Amino acid sequence: MDEEYDVIVLGTGLKECILSGLLSVDRLKVLHMDRNDYYGGESSSLNLIQLWKRFRDSDKPPSSLGPSRDYNVDMIPKFMMANGTLVRTLIHTDVTKYLSFKAVDGSYVFNKGKVHKVPANDMEALKSPLMGLFEKRRARKFFIYVQNYNESDPKTHEGLNLTRVTTKELISKYGLDDNTVDFIGHALALHRDDRYLNEPALDTVKRMKLYAESLLRFQGGSPYIYPLYGLGELPQAFARLSAVYGGTYMLNKPECKVEFDSEGKACGVTSEGETARCKKVVCDPSYLPNKVQKVGKVARAIAIMSHPIPNTNESHSVQVILPQKQLGRKSDMYLFCCSYSHNVAPKGKYIAFVLTEAETDKPEVELKPGIDLLGPIDEIFFETYDRYEPSNDPSVDNCFISTSYDPTTHFESTVMDVLTMYTAITGKTLDLSVDLNAASAAEE
């Protein structure tokens, strides 16, 4: 291989494929390699036979579950915020033309042993059984403050500097009780633990506004959308984008060893005795294990069912958040369910996931509070995987490594990692201030 590439991307996980697409659009010369013979890496979608091979060492799933090809089971299950960063990235790159989306039916929160719909605005808050009458009035005032808050208009700040005031201080100004704080922080602002309470309130207010704006996008029962046929479609769509702009793809390339020059900078990748030269390498943590550190572990269960999750208004697709405090844990637990309505299972079948940041080595025990909410289960699989983040300095070695996927069931943290890497590689910030109304056509 005599050519030199600006960037070689290793791995076809979603993060790597988005980056490959963005860099190709910028007219960088990109070579994309993967040791697997399929797209998606850790974030692929599996059919039933692939699922059985991975978890049961068998290629014979029970015939009662229906045809294998009708299943698209996401290994990193996540919804997209309808007004969020991933949707903006899809529109910015015009990748929407390769995909079809459908709104997600419901967004729920676990509180005092029961599942409740997340009140998403002041009117819903008034009807919610999550709060008593006086608490509803206080919460309504807080929601109105958040809805009206405009960072560039001091008149909407009510004298508060949200870059200095903590979330705890802002919320106490409205006298809200712990239960209300719990669902605001975890089900609306989508924080993963309670550290946000002692951090500047601006981030929480922005997250709540994103939730409300996303909810208004499709007037659905939740702020989320999800692609038909599952998330395996996303890496392939960005791969197509990269190819349109001249990116080169090589799948099924064993080993993919990163080469370094005398100064310790990445200068190429060798596979099957051939070396492709490059200026920079992008990869997931598995390609450079000596340049990453373990930061946690995700426990998850994948369940196949013949009914929707109980107490979610018969929703065919839904997220349920179990805040840490409700479970006596250090971090939240997430339930994610989708079904034949998004073409990820045969008619009448539902796929549910239970995920959390693992605090023990026993996923079956640890995930029980979420599994108990599922009702009868046809089949269930358990797994834990380690989470890594880079420990290197890309300015020294030209290696840009993504962080592992966290257990959250939405894409905001995933895309922020991609955009941070994009800026580090190009020195530019991606302008995502797109007109989202132009995107409504992307929804089915």
Write up what this structure looks like:
- The protein has 444 residues and is an alpha/beta fold.
- The protein has helices at residues 14-25, 48-56, 85-93, 122-127, 133-148, 167-173, 178-188, 201-218, 233-244, 324-327, 363-366, 368-371, 394-397, 412-426; strands spanning 4-10, 30-33, 45-46, 73-74, 80-81, 101-103, 106-111, 114-117, 224-227, 248-250, 257-260, 266-271, 274-283, 292-305, 318-322, 333-339, 350-357, 379-390, 399-401.
- The strands form four sheets. Strands 1, 2, 10, 11, 12, 13 and 19 form a seven-stranded mixed β-sheet that branches.
- α1 (14-25) crosses α14 (412-426).
- It is globular.
- The two termini are 43 Å apart.
Write a concise keyword list for the protein shown above.
single chain, Guanine Nucleotide Dissociation Inhibitor, domain 1, 14 helices, alpha/beta, Guanine Nucleotide Dissociation Inhibitor, domain 2, 444 residues, 7-stranded mixed β-sheet, 3 domains
Whole-number total of structural domains: 3
Largest sheet: 7 strands, mixed
- Into which percent range does the helicity of residues fall? 25-40%
- Corresponding CATH architecture of the largest domain: 2-Layer Sandwich
| Cα-atom radius of gyration | 22 Å
Number of helices: 14
Query: N-to-C terminal Cα separation, in Å?
Result: 43 Å
Name of the CATH homologous superfamily of the largest domain: Guanine Nucleotide Dissociation Inhibitor, domain 2
Class by alpha and beta content: alpha/beta
Beta-strand percentage? 15-25%
Give the low-confidence spans.
none
Number of strands: 19
At CATH level 3, the topology of the largest domain is Guanine Nucleotide Dissociation Inhibitor, domain 2
Shape: globular
The average pLDDT value, as a whole number, equals: 92
CATH class group of the largest domain:
Alpha Beta
